[in-house]
Please model this.
Amino acid sequence: MSKNNIINLRCFDQEIGKIGYDENLNKSYFQYNPAFLKSGIYSNLFPLIFKRVEQTQVFSQYNNDTFRNLPPMIADSLPDMFGNLIFKTWLESNGFEKITALEQLAYVANRGMGALEYEPIAHIPRNTSINLDEIITVLKKVMRQKSNTISDGMDTEALINIFKIGSSAGGAQPKILISENKKSGKIIPGDVEYSNQYHHYLVKLHLDDEHRYNKCLIEYSYFLTAQCLDIEMMCSKLIDNKHFATLRYDRQNGEKQHTLTASGLTGWDFRNPQISSYENLFNLANYLKVPHHDIHELFKRMVFNVVFANADDHLKNHAFIYNEISNEWQLAPAYDMTYSLNPILNYKKSSRALSINNKRVDINREDLLKIAKENTIKNPKSIIDKTVQAIAYWQQQAQIAGISDKIISNMKRDFWN
Ligand SMILES: Nc1ncnc2c1ncn2[C@@H]1O[C@H](COP(=O)(O)OP(=O)(O)OP(=O)(O)O)[C@@H](O)[C@H]1O
Ligand SMILES: [Mg+2]
Model:
């Protein structure tokens, strides 16, 4: 495998700059392409962290598992737990040893989430068809064996496919990217195709058996409830009545959208509780000068997460989208809006990923109203009331989706009332 110590960063057909990496010194470097800087276009592509200067910029402060010594906006292109597991399995099955974060970017290449692209491109064999059952069989093996030696007895073709379509997105849950032809319904790998002839989906897979409940059904019931509360989400559906498929907000109108998570934009490590607060998230949204409608929307999402016990609403579960025509940022649609605990276990109290009014448990109306006041939200009490009233709607949808009464009543114990 080639040892790339420098890689080109591209976006919207422009060469934005070069990224360097020194594994021994735990440092990375970034230098803007002078012609790109001079042109003045897309000047708000990276509103934080990169200075708009020609000199090389050095980064040594992002030395942790989240950013892997890279500038955070670049680290956002790398997968999290699930994608890294697939990555490791594929590398091992091909006889490769561990590779650096920068080398991993060569595999992300032009297949990553969002619009950032990396060159040179590491070669991956192409194949065009997808068989969901086959993918699930291989994924079950991968997940079961986790960190053991895993490459034995894997169907190579299926593994390549999983590598291509399962190693880009972030998050801990098993997921793949697929594209569905709007006319023929044919499903192809969703890594490089982004034309308007397809619907582009991120699919969270239910691998059966492991749990006595299906997380995807729960996420779908949350999606329906969020939609009913006018919370902005991409259209989502169930595949085979058990996998949760959501349209990708970073592939719209046949174009790639430049998107970054709150963590990637700022360098706030989503695992660090000290900076993980809704106050910081609102401050970031205000700093980015998103329309006031988005601030209002963010408030609705916060209330939803509190009422419906989504405690895992961390800084990588909120994202922003760049509009390359207006050079402005806005809030991305909501995603990963789901019950974050295991409904089979009994929890006394669950601590929230994002604090509210310096609290992670027992959030009350006053805490929510304080945030509303700070952000001049109109009628916050009515937003809270409507969200609490939607618990009944959620219950209906959960029953229709086939979630058992026992799970429903366990979940409701954690809801607000
Ligand atoms: N509809 C979407 N369009 C584009 N990107 C998305 C979409 N939904 C999620 N993503 C991206 O994929 C990542 C993983 O998705 P998601 O958070 O739903 O998965 P997860 O495995 O449940 O995550 P977690 O580890 O937080 O539980 C997100 O951080 C986000 O960057
Ligand atoms: Mg997530």
